[in-house]
Structures are given as C-alpha cells and as structure tokens.
Amino acid sequence: MKMQVFSILLLSVSWLSCTSPTKKGTSPQEPEKKVETKNVEPEKPAPAEKTMKEQADEFLKQYQAEYARLEGDLTTTFWKAANSGADADFAEAGRTELALRAYHSDPAMFKKIESFLAKKAELEPLVVRQLEVAYLAFKENQLPQDQLKVLVEKGKEIEKLNNTFRGKIGDKEYSNNELLKLLAMEKDSRKRQAAWEALKQVGAQTGPKLVELAKIRNKAARLLGYANFWDMRIRMQEHDPKMIMEIFEGLEKLTAEPFKKLKAKMDAQIAKKLKVKVADLRPWHYDNPFFQEAPPSAEIDLDVFFKGKKEQDIIDIAKKFFAEIDLPMDDLAARSDFFERKGKDQHAFCITMNRAEDVRMLLNVKPTAQWMDTMLHETGHAVYYKWIDRKHPYNLREAAHIFTTEAVAMMFGALAKNPLWLTEVVKADPKLVKKTKAAILEQRKLEQLIFARWAMVMLHFEKALYENPDQDLNKLWWDLVERLQMLKRPEGRNLPDWASKPHFTIAPVYYHNYALGELFAAQMRASIARDLKHQGPISEMSWNQKIIGQKLIKEVFGPGMTIPWPQFVEKVTGSKLSADAFAAEVGN
User: Fold this and answer.
1) 316-339 burial, b for 16+ CB within 10 Å, e for fewer?
2) What value does the mean pLDDT take over residues 450-463?
3) Half-sphere exposure at residue 142, Cβ-oriented, CA atoms within 13 angstroms
4) DSSP structural state of residue 337
5) Which residue ranges form the domains of the chain, and what is each CATH number?
6) Most confident of 132-146, 259-273, 314-328
7) b/e for 397-425, b at 16 or more Cβ within 10 A?
8) What is the dihedral angle through the alpha carbons of 280, 268, 272, 415, rounded to the nearest 10 degrees?
9) Is the pLDDT of residue 122 over 70?
10) Helix extents (H) in 388-538
11) DSSP secondary-structure letter at 278?
C-alpha cells in the first residue's frame, strides 16, 4: 500500500511541472496570455500503516478491557452461587462463564493473536507474554458455540450436585463436615464404613455424568488438534506431557520406601486404636475418605492444640500471623465468608474478583487442626493474589503458574503441623509441644508422603479416564489406589467411588499441579532458610519474621505471570524445579 500511494504522488508532481506555462515556451510573435490558476489543495498523504507494535498494543488494550469486564461478571455470579446454592444463581454463573468462553472463542481474534506471535521478534517481551497467555485462553475455546454451551452446562450440573448433595446413613441426611467428624471420632468399624459409604454416595449420581462429560471434553479437544482432553489440558498449562510423567515416575520411586515404612507404623497405630487386625484395615479406617491426608497418630492428635478454641479463633490466629510477617489480611477477611450454613458450598476456595484489591475466601471453619491448615492454605492463595503487581496487564495479574500459587498455599498450610509455629503463634502449651515434637514432625512427613501418593492416583486415573472413558473405571480406580496408596479395596465393591471427588468437575486435570506445588514449596522453604542464614532443620526455622513476607512480595507475588514458570522457579529458588528439596524433607 505504501508503494502505491507514493507512486501516485510522484505522478501528480510530474503532471503539474509539464503543463505549467513559462516564458521560455511562448512564441514571441504572440501576445503573452494570462494563465488563470486555481487554488488547488495538495493531496493529503494517506495515513501510514501502523507498526506491528502499535497494532498489538491496540489489540491488547481492547482485549484486556473486555476480558476484565467478562471475568468480573463471572466471579460475581460464581461467588453468589457458591454462597446460596440456589438454582437461579447457578444458572446465572453458567451464563457468565459461557459468555467469557464465547469471547475467547472468536476465531478472528485468535487468528490475530497467531499473526502477532508469528512476528514476535518485532514486539517487546511483555507484549509477547500477554499474547502467549491470551493464545492459551483462545485456543481451548475455538469450538462451536453449541459445544461450548454443552461443556459449561454439563459441568455446572455436576458441580451443583456435588455442592448440594447430602449423604445418608439410613434415612438421615448428613453434611460432609458431619460425616468427616464421624470418621474422625467413631471407633466402631461398621459405623465408620457407613459414614465412608455416605461420603461416596454422590458418586453413583455423578459417575455416569462424568463419563459423558469426559467424552464431550475429548471430542472438543480433538477438534482443536489434541489427542484427548488430558493431553490438551496439560499442554494448555504450559507443561510438556512427557516431563510431567517423568517427574511423577521419579516421585513414585522416591517415595515408595519411606511411605511404606511410615504407613506400616501408622497402620499398626490405627489397628490398635480401632481394635482390628492390620490385615483387616479398609479405606473407612482412615480419617479422610480418599486417604489424601494423614489421620491423627496414636502419639499425637493435633486437634489437642485447638481444644477449647472457637471458629473465630482460627480466623484470628491467621490474621495475627500474617500481619506479623508483613502480609496483613484484615481486608481479605472482611470480604470473605468463613462459616457453615445451609445451601453454601461445603468446600473451600479463594477467588480474586477483579485481579485487584477484591480478593475473597470461602471456608466452613471448625476449630480443628485440619481447618487451621485450610485457613492458612486459602490465605496463602489470597495474599498471593493481593500482592501481584497491579501495574501488570490484566491477563498477567495472575500467579506465575497454577502450581506456584498452590505451593504458597501449601507452604503456609503446613505450618499448622510445625511445632515451633504452634508454640509461637497458636500459643500451644510449650511443654506438650516439646514432649510431642518428634511425633508432630513424623506426622508432617507422613502427610507429605500420603499426599504425594494420592496425587499420583489422580494423575494416572485422569490420564487413563480421558484416554479411554469406556474402560472399567471402577476397577482402574481401586487398582491405582492399591498400588500407589497401598490401601485394600472393599471386597465386592463395584461403584464409581472415584466420582465423589469434585475436582473431576471443577478442576479437571489439575491435581498434578498440587504435587508440583509441594516440590516448589520445599524449594521455597530451602531458599527462605538460606536467606535467613538459618542453621539446622527447616522445621526449626521461625516464621514470625517480616523479611519472609517482604521476600514473597518482591520475588514470588509481585512478578505475577510476566515470565514463564521454569525461569520463574529458577529465579526464585536458584535451581530448576525438581524433587531434590522434597526428597530431603521426607527422606531424612
């Protein structure tokens, strides 16, 4: 276009110079004629074509504004639905989610992003990063509107079922918290089994729906050029599938012996406590229905440190602690919802409403060690969101990766099992803490190992689920549980127990990030210890230091998603993500 305009301008100039009369060109025999001239305005040059940088900046400015508006609608309606449980609110949340997906399904915008990235050498790194993150959001949604609608509606249907379902023992309904309390307190094996089965009852309803949803998700993934939904989600999270499987294979080998050893000791304690033989232990003899958390040991029940406390005390402890490390959370607590009530989501989560100052948490707090852990965990997410630099472009005002925010949450949640923290912050009896210190630390190590093995079950099961949704999933589930968690399956049971886990719906192909989070959390603890010049076991490092919060704000929270996670992890901890630091914590 530039060449064409330039040529026309040259021709105009040539024509004027050739036809303009001069004395030299007039015959002397003829009188000189007066030539009338008209005021002709020169042609205005056509506007220059915008540079690639200008085009990208203009595109991103419009994109970020609309993205912020649509996501704001979604977070508002999601928060309302989670708190009310009302059909109308879930329907509205589904509508706003669909609107956000539809926006990211625009093929013209997607092609525009692809064209910019094809010439990323002409763009600044921060612009390229915005486009890379936008590309991932658009890629997943390059589907027909009718398919997007089905994906959202099917997911919301199962999500609502999980949130509002109440298990039954006989004719009586129980909340999840009530059933979990039965598992924690009851010593009669038959009653424990009844509570465990009640917690699994939702699976019979959600199982067939999840298989149907898996097939719909696979169809969508294949339309986008992926092998299946698992393959798509892994790659969309900026992971290499081969790398993920290699990490988990290493974790399985690394944790096999220490897990086997500690589980044998734990099983002996549980068998003695419940008056059963070790050989007769079944999944309901453990306090968590998925055996993803360590049950209290015979030597120390961590709930003893919270005896006599009220629900509000758990929140107040967290507020005081985070203020002491220079991460005040009073504003976060003021916007959050902490207590159980009918219709409300029974789980826990953190949400940033606008990727700015409005960050909220939803919990159902009880005065227990588990809920202290959960309170610290969700606040870890919240302070991360709060201190991401708000000068970053909207779509980069996010954690460096989903596993990095999980790492921060896990790092703080683990303090609920730290002897020094219990003494300094919870104000637990120093003599009792000293007496039970070894048992507390062993329990913490067991917790790490149990969770690592549980995360392996989720990874392998979801991978297999999407590779072949028609296989015998009930059998597959228990095959993995027996191999990786070393639990015995209930005799003759053939029900979709796996489907009672809500993550299959609300956070599909996500659990591997929890495990990666544990690895990164271990690396961060080692990095903090080096910065503090701490000598001795990391478990004996005092966390009541402002420098910890300041380090996290500057190095972990502030950068947001401005750099890809591999470089981020190395910059924060001084080494690439690996199992080394985790191995040091669980293997000694």
Assistant:
1) ebbbebbebbebebeebbeebbbe
2) 96
3) 20
4) B
5) 52-207 (no CATH), 243-587 (1.10.1370.30)
6) 314-328
7) bbbbbbbbbbbbbbbbbbbbbbbbbbbbb
8) -120
9) yes
10) 402-413, 419-424, 430-467, 473-480, 503-506, 511-531
11) G
Distance between terminal CA atoms of the chain?
A: 70
Alpha carbon of 23 to those of 18, 28, 31: distances in Å?
A: 14, 9, 11
Using CA atoms, how far residue 19 sits from 33, 35, 141, 289, in Å, is 15, 11, 62, 95
Single-letter amino acid code for the residue at 142 = Q
Cα–Cα distance for residue pair 145/228, rounded to 1 Å:
20
Query: Is 420:539 a contact under the CB 8 Å cutoff?
Result: yes
Instruction: Give one word for 469, left, alpha or beta, with left for phi > 0 and alpha for psi -120 to 50.
Output: alpha
Of 265, 335, 316, the C-alpha closest to 426 is 316
For CA atoms 131, 136, 140, 141, the dihedral sign is negative
3-state secondary structure of 145: helix
For the chain, the average pLDDT equals 89
What residues have CB less than 8 Å from 364, skipping those under 6 apart? 177, 338, 339, 340, 344, 346, 347, 348, 371
Tokens of 147: 């398919």
Provide φ and ψ at 372, rounded to 5°. -65, -45
Half-sphere exposure of 398 (CA within 13 A, CB side): 16
